[in-house]
Structure prediction request, 594 residues.
Amino acid sequence: MGAARESIPGSSFVLRPDAGGPTDARSPVFQVESRARGLLLLLGVSSAATSVVLEPSARDYPAIAVLEVLVIVGFATAGHLLLQDPTQRENGRLLIASALLQVVTHLHLVDHSPLPMLAWLCGPLSAMPAAIVLLRFPDKELDPLDRGWVVFHLAWLVSSRLLFTIPTPERRLGWWPAIPMSPGFAAAASIVGNTVLSLSTVFFAFLLFRRLRHSRGLAGHAVVPVLVASISASVTVVLHLMSVANSRESVPPLVLGIEQAGLLTIPAAFIFSAIAMRLARAKIADQLLKVNHSTTPREWQLALSETFADPDLKLLCWHPREAVWMTVDGDIVDLDAFRGRLVFPVDAGGDRLASIVADHAIGRHKHLLDAAEAATRITLLNIAALAEVRESRFRILQASVDERRRLGRNLHDGVQPRMAAVTMLVEQLWAAAEDGSRTRELAEELKTAVKETLDDLRDFARGLHPTVLTHRGLAAAVESAAGRLRLTVSIAIPGERWPEPVEVTAYYFITEGLNNVAKHADVDRAEVRVTNGGDCLVVEVIDCGQGGADPNSGSGSGLVGLKDRVGAVGGIVEINSKKEGGTCLRARLPFASR
Prediction:
């Protein structure tokens, strides 16, 4: 369980779950409660099967008896699943109560007062706990219109069942204050009662349809199946009531079967919704597994938005230096702008890290919020750590570039002039010596050695840091390097400039790639392409040689070095090299954040 969430200014919703406690699956108390629920579910299943199977009608219509058992077991199972969610325990208890009342309905088989009368009363009342859940799930409160329907429907059921409806003599308690009615009046009262119940059930379906219209997002995904199933079940109940009103005999088995099948869809929908919520939490874990070195806060926001089915979801990152909230696009925002939305914080070690702004209905699913909070914390800390590593690498590379430039400048300004002076002295010595003398021969050899040393020194200084790269850019530096190779190189590089470490990395990537072509590809042509990828520089060195380049082979140390150099600026290297199919070296060098 995560740490307690504090109130965030501008938020109209604050969730403060307790740390640990019985909601923790590892808690001994939770495990004991789970065993108790499992035992209760087993007893309920046994009671339902026994009571229903003992019904006389079960022998005549076994399919209906099986459906009745499945309905009772379904409500008990759905209640058991809801009990495992701390925010749905009240609804879970009501569904289990509905299952138990359905079991009590069959106690009219027991020939002991007052059980038959109790069963007579519990028959219609068994639907009320489930109806309350259907009107408010996944909330805990009913709105005024729903509450009014519950009061009216409950009052009508109790009064009509106990005061006006005449049970059979074997169910009737002699002392019960039922109003005596003639057969004709009883028939009329039955028609009125069934009509009122039908209209009330239709209004109940209207209330469900009203909720269906306002269901959206992930919460809507959980509620919609339940509401659709409930509306379908309401239609079957109305069909049953109409059949009772139009038939003087018992209700046809087909109608009873349709009614039980419709009622069975309700617990099935609850079970489906519970599974859907668990799958949503699993989906967050799947999204977390996709986090890699290139994941950005914007990509994680899109992942959360997809998981929550909320296109307006926002991930706000806290910037402590400026003490502001910023969107993933870099815009500064105020949390007061999100009133009416769910705003829940993501902390790290007591420090602010981020806030997730989502649809208010998501707050009903505590486990899902906990999973999203933990996954967001891990993702953002991972992104921050990788960014810090990249910054560190970038600083190291920048220091290396500066040191190379300093060494090259010292060689150019200090050592090379001295070597040039030595060359002039040797030329003077050569001119002063007599023709054919040993001195002139030694002077000639010394002059050649000094010139070669000076050329090597210039090449070394150029290798440390090419001056043309600093002054004229990447395109000119690559053209200069390609001119010293025995290759015809096609070069396509924009004339714009990029951060120096990026340009230096691109330059050495290209020159190393061209050297590899000259040494191993057995071709005389190569191609260099550099394009601006928006937030990265895409560098490609292409040849149509023999291919087969493999950085994992023992001879691939140069390619490994390229990967390390590119990785120092947070880039990646792609190698596409097939036997006899040529080679394409591609580097992606990020620069937008610099």
In short: Residues 472-590 form a domain with the Heat Shock Protein 90 fold (CATH 3.30.565.10). Residues 421 and 427 are 10 Å apart (CA to CA).
